[in-house]
Design goal:
The chain contains 9 helices and 10 strands. Strands 2-3-5-6-7-8-9-10 form an 8-stranded mixed beta sheet. It has a two-stranded antiparallel ribbon with strand order 1-4. The protein has one domain (4-43, 80-249): Alpha-Beta Barrel (TIM Barrel). The protein has helices spanning 75-78, 84-93, 110-121, 141-144, 163-166, 169-176, 192-202, 219-235, 244-249; strands at 4-8, 17-21, 31-36, 79-83, 98-102, 128-133, 149-152, 181-187, 210-214, 239-240. Helix 2 crosses helix 3 (110-121). It is globular. It binds iron/sulfur cluster (SF4). Iron/sulfur cluster (SF4) binds at residues 40, 42-44, 47, 49, 52-53, 103-105, 134, 155. Residues 40, 42-44, 47, 49, 52-53, 103-105, 134, 155 line the site of iron/sulfur cluster.
Length: 255
C-alpha cells in the first residue's frame, strides 16, 4: 500500500502543488515545482502559511489575531491526505527541473517524503530535490542521501517559539554536517544577526552557507527591512535572500 502524505490545499481545495519560480534562498529565480505539506511542529507568530498548522481550538498566538477573531483554520478544509503515488503524479503534471518539498514542516512526514522522492526519481534521476525545513528535526539517513539541497530556516526569538523546541542542537548539528544544507534565517532587524552569528559559531556553519531573508508578506515590508538587513548581512559575509514570489504574486497560495 502506498504511503500517504498530508498536503495543504489551494483556495479551490486542490492540493497545493504548482510550478513557479523559487523565490528564496540558494535556487532563487530558478523554475521549480512545489509541493506544500500540511502540519508544523513550530508556531511562528508571523507565519505566512498558518493554514498548514494553526487549527481552530488551538491556543497559539498569531500576529494576525483580531479581538474575538483569532486567525485560525479548519483542518478539514485546509488539509488533504493523498497516496504518495497520486502526489507524484500531480507533481509530474507540473514538472520542472527541480521539486521543492515545503510546508509546514516536511520532516514531520519524513518516511512518506522519502517514498515520494523515490517515486519522482524513478525514470527521472536528474530531477533536483530541494527541501525547505525549519531545521528542528534530525533528517533520517534515507532522507539526507536523497536530497540535493536542504534550505534550513532555524527560527529566532522573534518567531515566538521556545528556543528549546525551535533550535535543537542535534538537528542543527546534523544539517551543519551536511554540505548540501544551506541556512536561511528570517530576520526583522540588523540586531537579529547577532543570534545568527551565535548559532553559526555553535555549529561551525561557514558564513558562505548563510542567507539572511527579511520577514514580510508585502513588497513594501520587504523593501523597508532590506535597507538595514542587506548591508548588515553582507558585512558579516552572509548572502541576502529576497522573497521574489511576494514581489511577483503577492501573498497568495499556489503561486
Ligand atoms: S516553521 Fe515555517 S511553517 Fe512552521 S510555523 Fe514557522 S514559518 Fe510557519
Amino acid at each position: 500500500m502506498s504511503a500517504v502524505l498530508r498536503l495543504a490545499r489551494n483556495d479551490d481545495g486542490a492540493p497545493e502543488i504548482f510550478r513557479s519560480v523559487q523565490g528564496e534562498g540558494v535556487s532563487a529565480g530558478q523554475p521549480r515545482t512545489f509541493a506544500r505539506l500540511s502540519g508544523c511542529n513550530l508556531h511562528c507568530t508571523w507565519c505566512d502559511t498558518a493554514y498548514t498548522w494553526n487549527w481552530r481550538g488551538s491556543a497559539f498566538q498569531h500576529e494576525r489575531d483580531a479581538p474575538g477573531a483569532p486567525w485560525k483554520f479548519d483542518p478539514k478544509a485546509e488539509m488533504i491526505a493523498l497516496p504518495v503515488t497520486e502526489v507524484a503524479a500531480l507533481v509530474r503534471e507540473n514538472i520542472s527541473k527541480g521539486v521543492v518539498i515545503t510546508g509546514g514542516e516536511p520532516l514531520l512526514q519524513m518516511d512518506a517524503v522519502v517514498a515520494l522522492i523515490d517515486a519522482l526519481k524513478t525514470g527521472a534521476p536528474e530531477l533536483l530535490i530541494e527541501i525547505e525545513t525549519n531545521g528542528s528535526i534530525v533528517p533520517s539517513g534515507a532522507l539526507a542521501e536523497r536530497v540535493d539541497l536542504f534550505m534550513v530556516s532555524p527560527k529566532l526569538a522573534h518567531s515566538g517559539n521556545d528556543a528549546a523546541i525551535a533550535l535543537r542542537s542535534a538537528a542543527l548539528a546534523a544539517f551543519a554536517a551536511n554540505p548540501r544544507a544551506f541556512f536561511k534565517f528570517v530576520a526583522r532587524e540588523a540586531g537579529d544577526l547577532d543570534a545568527v552569528a551565535a548559532i553559526a559559531a555553535d555549529h561551525a556553519i561557514a558564513a558562505s552557507r548563510i542567507y539572511i531573508m527579511p520577514e514580510g508578506t508585502t513588497s513594501a515590508a520587504l523593501r523597508a527591512r532590506e535597507l538595514s538587513l542587506k548591508p548588515a548581512a553582507l558585512s558579516r559575509g552572509y548572502s541576502y535572500s529576497d522573497r521574489l514570489h511576494i514581489h511577483m504574486f503577492g501573498e497568495k497560495r499556489g503561486v
